[in-house]
Amino acid sequence: FTPKRLAGRKVVLTAGPTFEAVDPVRAITNTSSGKMGYALATACARAGAEVVLVSGPVALAAPAGVLRVDVRSALEMRAAVFDALPAADVFIGVAAVADYRPLQPAEHKIKKSGDTMRIELTPNPDILAEVASRPDAPFCVGFAAESRDLDAYAEGKRKNKKLPMLVGNLVADGMGGDDNTIALYDERGRHPLPRAAKSMLAQEIVEHLANLLAPAGRE
Ligand code: PMT
Question: Ligand 1 in contact with 179 (CB < 6 A)?
């Protein structure tokens, strides 16, 4: 691992799930553990970057040398990202952000009844798409977690959100565990990596993005 490839760079990352309140004790969420995002934050810090990690609720300790900002919902995550964004060189969206939130969370705990229940959902803002479409956008790296047709969906997301780089994984490979199988997508195509620990893959991702960031580092 080439050290200090990101010296002098500021990196903002999102990690973990978001919690979208249904009532004071219930939420819509997903099973992201935060491990991939925390591994990447660690790798960025080890590569010399100033790192701000905007994290949904996870059971992980903040990596050494990383400023962690805790959030719950997608709206809180968006606000924390935009607070951290000034002077950022790189933004990496690893979080599994809930695409929808309950339109009107109940103020008090919803009581059980024998009836069926409907929860009306409204779309959350797409944080990565918003960051990437800014005129002063940092270098943006997206993630795509898919349950099938990974290559087509991943490359579609990269192009739709106008991202120079995206990391694709299957939910069954990457969500929750310590290992992952990923492919990197950029303007030059698809670069699959062998299955490995998330800590190792994080270093490969940092190498790849450092090569794309610095014109002098391009092959
Ligand atoms: O946390 P782990 O257990 O280690 O699992 C890792 C992971 C599977 C969560 C991770 O590797 C991963 O794939 N993260 C992205 C999951 C995801 O929600 O992907 P998506 O295809 O729904 O979103 C595409 C991209 O847009 C992502 O970079 C996401 O952070 C971003 N996004 C999505 C929706 C939204 N409202 N705002 C966003 O910023």
Answer: no
